[in-house]
Specification:
The chain has 63 residues and is α+β, with helices and mostly antiparallel strands. Helices cover 25% and strands 30% of the residues.
């Protein structure tokens, strides 16, 4: 049976901070983490569909 873990949510619209785009992840506790280093909005949104996103989740105990 799959474990039901609270989900991490992401702002659907990345934030532009200086020359970078950031995603904001909100954990079930309410804590937020900025994921940085994207050159474009499309790159930030695309990150959510890639292997780097899966590795990011796994490193935080979410799979």
């Amino acid at each position: 049976m799959a474990e039901n873990r609270p989900k991490i949510t992401f702002e659907t619209k990345p934030l532009k901070v200086g020359p970078e785009w950031h995603l904001v992840a909100t954990f079930p506790s309410g804590q937020q983490e900025h994921i940085t280093g994207f050159k474009t909005e499309a790159e930030a949104i695309g990150w959510l569909d890639g292997s780097r996103y899966q590795a990011w989740l796994k490193a935080r105990g979410y799979e």
